[in-house]
Amino acid sequence: MRLNPVMLATDAPPIPEAKRWLDGVTFPPERPLLNVSQAAPVDPPPETLRRAIAEAALNDAESHLYGSVLGMDDLRAEVAANWSAHYGGHVAPGQVAITAGCNQAFVAVMATLAGHGDEVILPTPWYFNHKMWLDMTGVRTVALPCDTAMIPHAGDAEALITDRTRAIVLVTPNNPTGAEYPPETLAAFRDLARARGIALVVDETYRDFHSRPGAPHDLIADPDWDDTVISLYSFSKTYRLTGHRVGAAIASSKLLREMEKFQDTAIICANMLGQKAALWGMRNLSQWVAGERAEILDRRAAVEDHIGPLAGWDILGLGAYFAFVSHPFDAPSDTVARRLVQEAGVLALPATMFAPEGDPICAKGLRIAFANIDRSQIAELARRLAAMTPERA
């Protein structure tokens, strides 16, 4: 049979590819594998939330039926109230759609904004699933290089806009770099997008682990935010609901009415148990989330304490779940990443998986997802990196 050529031309998912590097490798008991390749929580939700999920599964028949295409009314209202309070603006329930995770929020929004032959601007390094979706739908990705602090600039993006440009996509805190974009950076991109009549899509999957107290930006405080801004969110990281697949898109009601067509065709509705879990979490777990944030910020500090002083291992970006580091070896990052498995028992993703070929920063970059390793493991990671030498790599 013949396969879709754009699918064949799309890169393979990086995480499964990296996990294949483990095949046939033995890790001695005194040096077990340190897996820093993926940020998804490995622990289940807190027991109180699991009990709420079990209660809904047993006693709420609605949990097993189709729901509204754009999400449960109660959950949409809760998200709208949370966004309004958190950002000091106004979001109505009709400006919220519940999706099957944040990845699906992205593809639904992109399917609504852009088609074959259109263009979307992504800062590099980019989140690989964003690039993969654009590739498999025939939308051209236009790379926007970041500065050495891993921050993109609206002035650089302006020169890349053409009559085929449909959106600029920003991820903050960033995956893969961890960089937290300053409010003025986001405002400049909003002003540029508005002036050029395109969308600014802001993926805020890691919003709840931002190091800045309060709102990380003032985009939603703008009374006309929905003429330009689209915010994406994930409940998966905040409440450990990765397997339940529940996320959100916050946008104009006009855009969401069009996006409803994609939702109805692709998934009909987001997982109902996941939606009920997200609603229960938003209403009951604010203190628990604050504790999770404090733990992530402590692990971020541990990365600074232990990896920051290592000779040659420069931290280019750090925040939320990720550290983006430049290695000291005279070898491309994909080669170094494979040898880290063999020689240090460390599985990390090379930055070449997040950028176009030849990107100068990513050629020597590694993404370290530190959210699932504690302070002692971060210290051990630093010891293993220090033990690697340019001669061995």
Quick tags:
393 residues, globular, Aspartate Aminotransferase, domain 2, 2 domains, alpha/beta, 14 helices, 4-stranded antiparallel beta sheet, 15% strand, Aspartate Aminotransferase, domain 1, 7-stranded mixed beta sheet
Write structural notes for this entry.
The protein has 393 residues and is of the alpha/beta class. The protein has two domains: 5-43 and 288-387, Aspartate Aminotransferase, domain 1 (Alpha-Beta Complex); 47-285, Type I PLP-dependent aspartate aminotransferase-like (Major domain) (Aspartate Aminotransferase, domain 2, 3-Layer(aba) Sandwich), CATH 3.40.640.10. The chain has 14 helices and 13 strands. The protein has helices at 5-9, 14-19, 47-59, 73-87, 101-113, 128-136, 154-158, 183-196, 235-239, 253-266, 272-284, 286-306, 333-344, 375-387; strands spanning 34-35, 96-99, 119-124, 140-145, 165-171, 199-203, 229-234, 247-250, 314-319, 322-326, 346-347, 349-350, 365-369. The chain has a seven-stranded mixed β-sheet with strand order 2-8-7-6-5-3-4, with helices on both faces. Strands 9-10-13-12 form a four-stranded antiparallel β-sheet. Strand 3, helix 6 (128-136) and strand 4 (140-145) form a beta-alpha-beta unit.
